[in-house]
Amino acid sequence: MNKYKINGWPGSSKSITRELLRIPVLVAALGYMVDMYDLFLFSIVRVPSLKSLNISEESILKDGIMLLNLQMTGLLVGGIVWGILGDKKGRLSVLFGSILIYSLANIGNAFVTSVGAYAVLRFIAGFGLAGELGSGITLITEILPNKIRGYGSTLVATLGVFGALLAYLVAYLFSWRASYFIGGGLGLLLMVLRIKVFESGIFIKLKEKNIKRGDIRMLFNNRTRLLKYVTSIAIGMPIWFIAGILITFSPEFGKAMGLHQPIDAGKAVLFTFAGQITGNIISGSLSQYFQNRKKVILLFMSSSFLFVLFYLLIPVRHPAVLYLLCGCLGFCGGYWTLFITVAAELFGSNLRATVATTVPNFVRGTILPMTALFLMMKSNMGTIHSALLVGSVTYLIAIIALIFLEETFKKDINYIEVD
Fold first, then answer.
1. 233 occurs within a structural domain
2. What value does the CA radius of gyration of the chain take, rounded to a whole number of Å?
3. Cα 336 from Cα 404, distance rounded (Å)
């Protein structure tokens, strides 16, 4: 068997493949796929589902933002709860609990008959979704050898993005109600596979010691930890500006651009996440090749801002051009799981699940102030320029945060945070 090294980690191609195809890694990846399915199914079926509930054309944008914000509020609350539980009770308890809640909420969405019921279930679904990715990434970073953690995260990200593509396919073939029901069923099926998942060895050893775990106050009572936490959130904000505003409301942007043909939000999601699949693979691989996470994140972040300018400022005359730009934005936003991996690597094992779970959900939650600013400025500046203002502020904050961020590629993560 031919031996070689992956960034200093000696191993064979077969042994590395075995590491990446272990049940916990696959379950985390498939779990993220179902997570993404539900998260972006709403973007795809927002318009038809609200129309079927007899919502007027004028209210679809307002009610759509309200439902999105409630989902994101659920993600914020759930991120805190699941993160703390992940460090106190274990990574697996969160995986099981989160999948059960958002699967049942998904099924409930299939039976809504009013906007009020829709809103409650989107909040519950958001709460459940909050625990999935952070716990999965935490588990992967703790069970894989240090030098191939990036490949594990890349696998999770790649399969996860297929969830968004699957949502488009299912929504194309079935009604919006059936699409929600299918998503819930997929989640419940995944729970069967999770029975075979084992707990992280690092957490098992940590649990045997009398060490404070999952105390979120520790993130705020130390200046260095607080700075690391805030910067790890800020660098993910541009990704959610793209997904939460430019893609989710692409039909409204198409109208503002004067396109005569309506933009299909489902197609916008399809092109975005088709691009993100490639972006995730390349960003993860480049971080392994250069043994540097910050350089790769900066490259992708800068490129995405360039395409944001193209999306908002270049005159578009045909929907195909807008869909192509969505694909480019998706590719450049393909550092999502890479930045969550950085967040997990930044903190000790007694706070790792709390951080890895809250960070992506707080990033998703930044859609609340972003959409609030977008709507507030929209009446005076118009759809295009208000989005440009929000985007510019978002990217400026993210780049400043990246400058202060610690490089984590070679960091040994088997340590604890001291109060």
1. yes
2. 20
3. 19
Can you tell me the distance from the alpha carbon of 299 to that of 303, in angstroms, rounded to the nearest whole number? 6
190-203: pLDDT as tens digits? 877 766 666 666 76
Q: Binning pLDDT at 50, 70 and 90, where does residue 235 land?
A: very high
Number of domains in the chain: 1
In this predicted model, which residue has the larger pLDDT, 4 or 306? 306
Flag whether pLDDT at 7 surpasses 60: no
Q: Can you give the pLDDT at residue 208?
A: 73
411 part of a folded domain: no
CATH number of the domain at 142, please: 1.20.1250.20
Task: State the Cα–Cα distance between residues 124 and 285, nearest whole angstrom.
Answer: 35
- Collapsing DSSP to helix, strand or coil, 260 comes out as coil
| Residues 266 and 44 sit within 8 Å (Cβ to Cβ) | yes
Place of tokens 């409301």: 249
| Residue numbers of the domain that contains 395 | 10-404
Q: Give, in order, the Cα–Cα distances in Å from 307 to each of 129, 154, 161, 276, 329.
A: 29, 23, 20, 14, 6
Evaluate whether residue 2 is within a structural domain.
no
Cα dihedral 178, 129, 153, 235 sign: positive
What's at 152, amino acid-wise?
G
Specify the amino acid at residue 384.
I
- Does 410 fall in a domain? no
Amino acid at 299: L
Say how many CA atoms lie within 13 Å of 158 toward its Cβ.
17
Q: How many C-beta atoms lie closer than 10 Å to residue 339's C-beta?
A: 28
**Each residue of 50-94: pLDDT tens digit?**
999 988 877 888 888 889 889 888 988 988 898 888 888 877 778
